[in-house]
Amino acid sequence: MLRAPLATIFFGLLLVFSSKAKPNGKDKKAKQVVPDIECDARAGKISFPEFIVRCPSSCRETKEKVYGTVVFASISSICNAAIHNGVITNAGGKVIVKKMAGQEPYKGTFANGIRSLSLPKWRESFTVSVGKPKKGVIYPATLESQKEHSTTSPTTPAPDPTTTTSELTTTTTTTTTTPPPTTPTTTTTTTARPRAAVHKVRDAGNSHPYLAAASARQTQNGQAKGLHQVVRSGSAFAGRFPPRINPGARRPEAGANNRRQPSVPATSDVSNSEPDTGYTWSNVDTVDSPASDPRPEISEYERWYFGQYPPQPADTDSGPKHLPETLHTRVEPVEVWKPEGNPFDLDLSDRGKDPLPRVPDTQGNTNCKVDIAFLMDGSWSIGKRRFKIQKDFLSEVSQVINVGINGPMMGIIQYGDDPVTEFSLRQFSSSKDLKPAIDKIIQKGGLSNVGTALFYVNKHFFSDANGNRGGAPNVVVVLVDGWPTDKVEEASRLARESGINIFFVTIEGPDDSEKHNVVEANFVDKAVCRTNGFFSLPVTSWFALRKAAQPLVKRVCDTDRLVCSKTCLNANDIAFVIDGSSSVGTGNFRTVLQFVANVTREFEISDTDTRIGAVQYTYEQRLEFAFGQHNTKADVLNAIRRINYWSGGTSTGAAITYAAEKLFSKSKPNKRKIMIVITDGRSYDDVRAPALAVHHSGVIAYSIGIAWAAQDELEYIATDPDKDHSFFVDEFDNLYKYVPKIIHNICHEFNSQPRN
């Protein structure tokens, strides 16, 4: 009777053991853990070169910005880039992100409900693909965030670039409290499990102000959920020393060898580069205690300007300092390091380094918020005595202008055969600090190559790393003894197109008998922002130079007249596509032309500034005038006035295609392409395909409908978001009301682009 139960038990045990048996003696493949991110998470904030993430739903509604197509700038939202590329839908999903070197330019397009923007260049790129892990690769289950500022070089050797596997550590943190007077201690144990890894390439350069501000907010809001729980901080060692910014601008003491910054930076070694993060990474993380903000009283701008941890005043307590026993990811300044101490005690080379930035003690003249670079003449022709007069003049200007973080910021470049940055914009935050720095400048010698110096300023000086603030106008003041020894026209043109206002202060310029010695005739008119006398200041004698300080400061602080800064007004190719159908009528057509003229008047017109073109259409299309055909504002306005009313049907779609072929195909690469379509009725042909084609080619389209225009067609034509690019007017006579709105939107869209 017992045989049946025994057989049943035996059979059950057999099934249990067989189910637990591992086929071929191998472990089951570990399941990939996919970390969640928020819709606004940007690729540049995550340190891994390749990783997998899961995007939530409804990211498209957040309208986070995306820059580029297929290959995106690292400042872009990962989730919105994935939606734009068709990798996921608005319902969310898994995405694999792979980083790569930066490129230029990034082209803006419209796809899958996401409008990506154009961007001239960015330091790092990334691509997105379907979130299906590659065979044999386990992606990081926990993401590490990138820091914002560079510190000292890591003391641990960098990993071998050819490494194909590495250790991904997991951290377990336990806290034990012993009886008083001892303090609670945290014991951190790490266990390692193998994963496939990709060599991490770190790009050089400092971060954009937006990223610095985001980092400050992340530090202050360490308890926030979502992305802040997934993205962790890096090394506990990195960041203990205050950052040293802009290598190469520290001036030597008297008698020391001259150590100057080269005119063109050498190619950076990747292992020693300064990327967005600038920090080394640790395999130990703790998330139980969020990092506290050591300087909560400073503003968001100061946090970017001086870094997350500005230098503290020297501690009067000279007693021994004890490092905390608890290992956290929070980074703190090491108090034992003093600015007045010998930096060689820490094996930190002082060669070619800037003095530490100071906590600002002045806000500066808030009515003169400009970023100014002075090009001082260091050529041999000037002599030591005149060079001293030039330094006294710069000292006087620095005191009159009242330097401060909310006012003007000032840097100096000395030029001879080639230029050298004496100090950058961010190095000194008050006038009293500038004066002794100017006094220490040593004459460089050489020729007076102003053109070479202007090329250098345009390419290297006005950068975020050097303290350029983006919202403040960029000004260059050139001091030259006599005349330049090279040509300045091309370098000046490029600088103007970049939004730089050039002033020329010529001391003892060439007289009639000397003009045959000048390399480039009328060099001042070819260099300055505008040839109206406002941007040039001739000084008859070196001994009269100091008297020019007040007039010069008054001019550079008149921001309303710094027209070369208004780059939204001088960096466009604008095509007007004008409805000439019979429903418009002759009188209303003249009203439309008046509207076109009113918009045109707001822009700086020339071949190097904004160019205007116009197309009139009915069933057919006619090119009224092309880009660059009229290169002065007066000529363009006269050409608009001469346009004759055509009359006929309404084929708006064909007109958009015609404008793309006849106008935008001949646009310059450094110009923004803007199309303004004006129509009063529904089109006889389809507008969707032509509009989508010009969007994909990078054209920013505005649509203006009058009276009987179809709202759906206006929205198809306009670039997203429609509310900023599509307008409806009930009567022709009300067109003029929309001129300020269109100009404002064009400039706002231009200025919202981040600067690299």
UniProtKB/TrEMBL annotation:
<dbReference type="GO" id="GO:0005576">
    <property type="term" value="C:extracellular region"/>
</dbReference>
<feature type="region of interest" description="Disordered">
    <location>
        <begin position="142"/>
        <end position="195"/>
    </location>
</feature>
<feature type="region of interest" description="Disordered">
    <location>
        <begin position="236"/>
        <end position="296"/>
    </location>
</feature>
<dbReference type="InterPro" id="IPR050525">
    <property type="entry name" value="ECM_Assembly_Org"/>
</dbReference>
<dbReference type="InterPro" id="IPR036609">
    <property type="entry name" value="LCCL_sf"/>
</dbReference>
<dbReference type="Pfam" id="PF00092">
    <property type="entry name" value="VWA"/>
</dbReference>
<dbReference type="InterPro" id="IPR004043">
    <property type="entry name" value="LCCL"/>
</dbReference>
<keyword id="KW-1015">Disulfide bond</keyword>
<protein>
    <recommendedName>
        <fullName>Cochlin</fullName>
    </recommendedName>
</protein>
<feature type="domain" description="VWFA">
    <location>
        <begin position="573"/>
        <end position="742"/>
    </location>
</feature>
<feature type="compositionally biased region" description="Low complexity">
    <location>
        <begin position="151"/>
        <end position="177"/>
    </location>
</feature>
<dbReference type="GO" id="GO:0007605">
    <property type="term" value="P:sensory perception of sound"/>
</dbReference>
<dbReference type="Pfam" id="PF03815">
    <property type="entry name" value="LCCL"/>
</dbReference>
<feature type="domain" description="VWFA">
    <location>
        <begin position="371"/>
        <end position="556"/>
    </location>
</feature>
<dbReference type="InterPro" id="IPR036465">
    <property type="entry name" value="vWFA_dom_sf"/>
</dbReference>
<feature type="signal peptide">
    <location>
        <begin position="1"/>
        <end position="21"/>
    </location>
</feature>
<keyword id="KW-0677">Repeat</keyword>
<keyword id="KW-0732">Signal</keyword>
<comment type="function">
    <text>Plays a role in the control of cell shape and motility in the trabecular meshwork.</text>
</comment>
<feature type="compositionally biased region" description="Polar residues">
    <location>
        <begin position="258"/>
        <end position="286"/>
    </location>
</feature>
<keyword id="KW-0964">Secreted</keyword>
<keyword id="KW-0325">Glycoprotein</keyword>
<dbReference type="InterPro" id="IPR002035">
    <property type="entry name" value="VWF_A"/>
</dbReference>
<feature type="domain" description="LCCL">
    <location>
        <begin position="33"/>
        <end position="126"/>
    </location>
</feature>
